[in-house]
Amino acid sequence: MLARRLQPMASQARRLYVELMFQVMGNALQAISEIDDDVQNEARALPEGFLFEMMVMPHGASLVIEHLGNGRFRYHGSEAPRPVNLSIQFKHIAHAFLVLSFQEKTSVAFANDRMLVDGDIGYAVRMTRILNRLEAFILPRLLARRAVKEYPRNLHLPEKLLNATRIYLKVASQFFDTVRA
To answer: 87 to each of 34, 73, 127, 137, 174, how far by Cα in Å?
Structure first.
């Protein structure tokens, strides 16, 4: 009986968590593209104006990122200014929650048919590598190993701490700017 009463609250909490994580990820993707050479090099292969979306089907939470050129991203929030080039879609909010709470790796979720890719699979792999690099920086190593397929071997603690601090400061400043506006 109690479980039935708590289920709607748990579902609401999952939805809010996924929405918050998409906001953090979107701002963090913009930030890491400004400071990390590896991410910039990876992103340079994307066409200028390329729009990437990650969302929960059918009309759930989402994040939209645009490649501005030269390896830089701009976070657009949840609304795309035009049709997206690549969309990675979670089939259910529970699937998104598993990935975004680091209980399941993105690669495992895809293998378990919890996600769809609409667009060029090569670009999807590239964006996944960028997301993995971001997670390796901003998450504690123990958590990052659960989140990414392979933790970067050459990522040493001083670089990780410096870049994570820079990313979090940029994300905090972007949230502050949004609240002020």
So the answer is: 23, 16, 11, 24, 24
